[in-house]
Amino acid sequence: xxxxxxxxxxxxxxxxxxxxxxxxxxxxxxxxxxxxxxxxxxxxxxxxxxxxxxxxxxxxxxxxxxxxxxxxxxxxxxxxxxxxxxxxxxxxxxxxxxxxxxxxxxxxxxxxxxxxxxxxxxxxxxxxxxxxxxxxxxxxxxxxxxxxxxxxxxxxxxxxxxxxxxxxxxxxxxxxxxxxxxxxxxxxxxxxxxxxxxxxxxxxxxxxxxxxxxxxxxxxxxxxxxxxxxxxxxxxxxxxxxxxxxxxxxxxxxxxxxxxxxxxxxxxxxxxxxxxxx
Length: 278
Hints:
- It is a single chain.
- By secondary structure, this protein is mainly alpha-helical.
- The chain is rod-shaped.
- 77% of the residues lie in helices and 0% in strands.
- The chain has helices at 2-17, 32-44, 48-51, 54-71, 75-88, 93-105, 109-122, 127-139, 143-156, 161-178, 189-193, 196-206, 209-224, 232-253, 255-277.
- It starts with a helix and ends with a helix.
């Protein structure tokens, strides 16, 4: 069967190209398989600029320029480079995502969100776009949406520590704004006010004759108006002094409460530092 097929193939070639087996001067020094292999190897070695459209190559060069501007903290120039790259290759998600990073550095958070959305529309599995959108959303106080973005980023890149820490920050901020007090504190202010030790110390403070005199003077100034408020600076100094006494009393009677407040302030500071550099 193979012999018959070979003969048919030879006859077809002879008919099409008008050659015969006697035309040995047309024979190649290489077998067909060798010619094919050599051709493949040559094509693999072609530079990128010869295998891609000129606009795409230029866009990638502009992206690299933008990245260099980002390293130099020249964010405006970076935005310009990424914008030109997008004009040449509008279907590349990386260019939108990189421009989003530059926009965030310029505090143009809403523009950054739009760029992240464009990147995700092109590549729905682009984890970095979700992560950068989470940062921008957090910056405009859209904590619930930021949490969703970070969760999606972690779904796509579960081992990314930056996404994990930023998710915790967004979740904490969401809890803060959702608390009944609306103070942004992580502890329950209502529980603090209802704490028996706190109530006892406040009652004791109000029994202090100096505090009673101070409060009476402040009320008189409030009723009498500006003319009666000649002693305003003295009242303020007394109020500060009374506050210091109150703080000392809390420290002596309930040091655990003071430690709780210190730990809260410390944790808020550290969280803010993490967000700044993530």
